[in-house]
Amino acid sequence: MSPAKILLVEDEPNVAQFIQLELRHEGYEVTVAADGEQALALFHQTDWSLILLDWMLPKLDGLEVCRRIRRTSEVPIILLTARDYIGDKIAGLDTGADDYITKPFEIEELLARVRTNIRRNHREMNRSSTDVLQVEDLVIDIRKRQVTRAEERIELTQREFELLHFLMQHQGEVISRERLLSAVWGYDFAGETNVVDVYIRYLRNKVDRKHIPKLIHTIRGVGYVIRSG
Ligand code: CA
Question: In angstroms, what is the span from residue 55 Cα to ligand 1's centroid?
Fold first, then answer.
């Protein structure tokens, strides 16, 4: 298998060089972009395995770069942010980033996140099942990545889709926030399970709001379950 190609978008030369060296040491091919416009130009040149994207950038900021990439691509994106507010993190995830890392970070943590996100992406691309899961009139087609309720198409972000997929694979089973985090976000987001609540809210808006019966249920103090009643 050819080495995974990573686009590193970071305007601070020292930080960029440090991360680049570490990633190369792990066997990745790394290209550096120093601002948002250059990032988009490079993004369109080839297929990337992963994008490491600094939030605060000249020309276009990381969130805007992320939004534009998401119009055409589901490449894993990890946001690097010096801001340490959960609101910002959720804003970042909401633009379609798969993950974020708060600066300053331990390089081991960054490498672990890179591995996890690339692995998850490979798993998704290799998944060739024709699985269709259903609860009441909610149907999820894993292979086509399509969701319908009462035969009406529902558009979900990648993360919303993965969350719904996991719940539907375990329909009728109450799943804790921690388990959803590790299954859907892929690692231990210790203490930040409110990200799950936010995404459950997004899902409910899209899946349940206009329909009866409600399918996504909160089990107070435990977690969530998807079931018909
Ligand atoms: Ca920066």
Answer: 6
* Mean predicted confidence (pLDDT) in 32-42: 96
Give the ranges where the chain is alpha helix by DSSP (H): 13-25, 36-43, 62-70, 86-94, 107-126, 158-169, 177-180, 194-207
Rounded to the nearest angstrom, the distance between the alpha carbon of 117 and the centre of ligand 1 is 22
Task: For residues 19-47, give the mean pLDDT.
Answer: 94
72 and 10 share one domain: yes
Residues 200 and 149 grouped into a single domain: yes
Asked if residue 157 and residue 121 are part of one domain, the reply reads no
Look at residue 64 and tell me whether its pLDDT is greater than 60: yes
Which CATH number is 196's domain given? 1.10.10.10
pLDDT for the residue numbered 87: 67
In contact, 197 and 145? CB cutoff 8 Å: no
Distance 202 CA to ligand 1 centre (A): 30
Instruction: Produce one character per residue of 51-70: b if its CB has 16 or more CB atoms within 10 Å, e if not.
Output: bbbbbebeebebbebbebbb
Domain holding 214, by residue range, is: 132-226
Same domain, 90 and 175: no
Residue 7 predicted with pLDDT over 80: yes
CA of 53 to the centre of ligand 1 (A): 9
Check residue 130 and give its pLDDT: 45
pLDDT of residue 168: 93
- pTM (predicted TM-score): 0.57
Do 73 and 118 belong together in one domain?
A: yes
**pLDDT value for 43:** 92
Residue 27 CA to ligand 1 centre (angstroms)? 25
The tally of domains found in the chain comes to 2
